């Protein structure tokens, strides 16, 4: 993931002070307390945003980017996950991009 982030950033020729955000889907099975039961069928994912500037990302070695990604994922707490789930349960939404791809039935 870190290599891809750096390669895309390098190829994009961004200004060095340009903020870049790498969106990553994180598995939540181990983050939830208590964890989801093994029998749970389905995905348990949440997106996290790894942030840097183009200059900071490119001036450091690949290991720095990997560590930055790892620290961001590790910083996601069970409390944060539960807050997102509780907020979504109160006001469920589906991204408009997802909605565009949901088939709808039509009757003739």
Automatic annotation (TrEMBL):
InterPro entries: CAT-like_dom_sf (IPR023213), Sec_Metabolite_Acyltrans (IPR051283). The keyword Transferase applies. One of its GO terms (molecular function) is transferase activity. Signal peptide: none annotated. Pfam families: Transferase (PF02458). Transmembrane segments: none annotated. This is HXXXD-type acyl-transferase family protein. It comes from Prunus dulcis (Almond).
């Amino acid at each position: 993931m870190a290599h891809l982030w750096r390669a895309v950033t390098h190829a994009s020729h961004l200004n060095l002070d340009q903020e870049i955000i790498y969106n990553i889907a994180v598995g939540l099975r181990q983050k939830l307390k208590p964890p989801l039961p093994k029998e749970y069928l389905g995905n348990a994912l949440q997106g996290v945003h790894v942030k840097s500037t183009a200059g900071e990302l490119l001036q450091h070695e690949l290991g720095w980017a990997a560590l930055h990604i790892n620290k961001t994922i590790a910083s996601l707490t069970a409390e944060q996950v539960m807050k997102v789930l509780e907020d979504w349960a109160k006001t469920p939404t589906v991204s408009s991009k997802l909605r565009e791809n949901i088939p709808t039935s039509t009757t003739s």
